């Protein structure tokens, strides 16, 4: 009898240890994760995390806003497991990523966003040319307003113009939403913001912000391009940018689970509901009976 009790006790101890061991194994459907994103893509990032938490209720995300370049440095220094990026990394940055994170550089692209140029509703401006943008960013008048240095919007525009951000001349109002709300005070200036700031079609805050400004189409080589679905899908709008995830997670845990979710059909439907262009296009099949 004593031997049976001893054997039973040992089995229970083994099962208990295995259970505790299993609980400590990283998993995609349970745990906490902080995602670093530039303020320009906060809306789409939050929407995707909300969808993931509905699918996996034991996960919890914190979306923290941080300038794009600073977020990348945190990833390299093991202070972050997942970041959202838009600009193209330099060969030196890719090398640093692969050496410090010890992973192959594989950006997980999930949406097409855009940098847009806005003016107050009553502005006489109806378009802006590529030459206007180049000239304006070299002018001491500093008529273009960005949301800060090291911001994704500034980095991306500089990249498109093949310039360094420090070589451009511009004004600053902190925050994309603040630029829209304060633009009336500076009727001669042009706000430069991320489309995702107010791209949600039926969101009340987005609707209010859209009513305050108008988006200028960009003229390039005699043709005007708009940051709408057609302009983004074919990347014809000159300042279309692709958002992607970078992670330092080497196993299939919550970060990689979230990346996979965001790139599947369900995640891409959320991207579309945000008013952005899904990067991965899925055919819609309708069966007729």
From TrEMBL:
Keywords: Signal
Keyword set includes Signal: yes
InterPro entries attached to this UniProt entry: PBP_domain (IPR024370), Phosphate_ABC_transporter (IPR050811)
All residue ranges annotated as the PBP domain in the record: 31-262
Pfam families (UniProt xref): PBP_like_2
PANTHER family named in the record: PERIPLASMIC PHOSPHATE BINDING COMPONENT OF PHOSPHATE ABC TRANSPORTER, PHOSPHATE-BINDING PROTEIN PSTS
Name the UniProt record assigns to this protein: Phosphate transport system substrate-binding protein
């Amino acid at each position: 009898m004593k031997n049976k009790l001893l054997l039973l006790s040992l089995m229970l101890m083994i099962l208990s240890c295995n259970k505790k061991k299993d609980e400590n194994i990283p998993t995609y459907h349970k745990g906490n994760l902080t995602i670093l994103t530039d303020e320009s893509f906060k809306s789409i990032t939050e929407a995707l995390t909300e969808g993931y938490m509905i699918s996996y209720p034991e996960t919890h995300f914190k979306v923290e806003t941080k300038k794009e370049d600073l977020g990348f440095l945190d990833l390299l220094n093991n202070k972050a497991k997942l970041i959202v990026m838009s600009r193209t990394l330099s060969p030196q940055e890719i090398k640093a990523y692969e050496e410090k994170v010890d992973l192959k550089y594989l950006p997980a692209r999930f949406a097409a966003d855009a940098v847009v140029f806005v003016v107050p509703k009553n502005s006489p401006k109806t378009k802006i040319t590529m030459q206007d943008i180049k000239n304006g960013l070299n002018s001491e008048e500093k008529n273009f307003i960005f949301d800060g240095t090291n911001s994704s919007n500034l980095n991306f525009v500089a990249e498109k113009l093949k310039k360094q951000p420090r070589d451009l001349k511009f004004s600053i109002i902190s925050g994309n939403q603040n630029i829209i709300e304060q633009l009336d005070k500076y009727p001669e200036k042009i706000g430069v913001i991320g489309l995702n700031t107010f791209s949600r079609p039926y969101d009340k805050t987005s609707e209010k912000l859209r009513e305050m400004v108008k988006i200028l189409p960009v003229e390039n080589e005699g043709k005007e391009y708009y940051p709408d679905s057609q302009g983004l899908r074919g990347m014809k709008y000159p300042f279309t940018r692709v958002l992607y995830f970078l992670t330092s997670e080497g196993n299939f845990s919550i970060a990689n689970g979230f990346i996979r979710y965001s790139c599947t059909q369900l995640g891409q439907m959320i991207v579309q509901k945000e008013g952005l262009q899904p990067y991965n296009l899925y055919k819609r099949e309708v069966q007729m009976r």
